[in-house]
Design goal:
Blueprint: H1 2-20, H2 33-56, H3 60-67, H4 69-96, H5 98-120, H6 127-156, H7 160-164, H8 179-196, H9 198-205, H10 207-215, H11 220-223, H12 228-250, H13 262-276, H14 280-289, H15 293-315, H16 324-350
Helix pairs in contact: 1-14, 1-15, 2-12, 2-13, 3-10, 4-5, 4-8, 4-9, 4-12, 5-6, 5-8, 5-9, 5-15, 5-16, 6-16, 14-15, 15-16
Length: 351
Amino acid sequence: MNHLVIGFGLILVAAVSGGAFGLQYRTMRRYTVDNAALLSLFFATIVVPLIAINILLPGWFGVIKAAGFKANLLVFVLGFGWGLGATTYSYSFSILGMALAASVLKGLSIAVGSGIPLFRHWHEVPLSARLVTLCGIVMLLVGAGIAGKAGILREREAKPEDEERPAKPIASCVIKCSGKIFWIGLFVCLLSGVLSACANLGYEYAAPLEKLAQGIGNVDLWATLIRWMPMYWGGISALLVFQGGNMLRRGTWRNYFAPGSGRDFAISSSMGLVHFMAQIPYGIGAFYLGTLGTTVGWGANIGMALIVAASLGFITGEWKGVSKKATNTLCTSIGVLLVAIIVLAYANTLA
């Protein structure tokens, strides 16, 4: 029970950080979404992790080399998928808004990210744990579907003149959610949900690196840090290719050097630390949860982050003026996802 409480406590810390990450896009003055996302994730995947791992896990690079090319390549590729998911999330957020984008994306991410680790450990847990976990995952899919319905209701309520009014530049991150652009945003959000699950899959398949780190005398908890490194390198590579390429084509890389951009730089770099704090506590929390850590832990992490993000969406006025039916539908989706997370937590006690 102590391990369960500690595990979920750490995952809650990760969830609060993850849920607040998208808030930066609403505060940018000079930066585009590409500028903000690339800078914050550069700090989250390169700067902060290198400082942390050199302090907490001596000899970590030797572990990377000892693991071999194939083991690192798989985690790197999954990290690349996660990075691409971060790119598409930036755009779905700017179109759909924080509450809806987070609900749809995170619901699908839970289903994929929890389902695959479950089947990997299928024969390592009792039948009761497997069945209860599957029920929880199905409920997560239902919750994601209800969230999509809430978005459709809000789209139908959009004013006709909104369809004809040109969208503001993406740099302002103003939400425009009507007509064709809504459906494009929803498709991108679904794709991003699948790709974002690669973060958990990369962590799952990097288990051999953790065992090697433990084998050279490192503390078990800090050994979990090594799992993230190849995935971080894959993630930042994807961001450099796609978002860096966009900035080169559009010339928006100059925003980094524009007068008055110091404020945006400070916010984005700080959010890099926030993003880092959304993953490292998760990894340690999953360690405490045991065999089903990456199944139950991932569901709990993303579900809690969804609550934070949806709450911020309401606070920032994204759903102001929307009908009670639409907002109640979104709240229902969150409720279903929460019940699903509780079911997954119960499954963990059966393992």
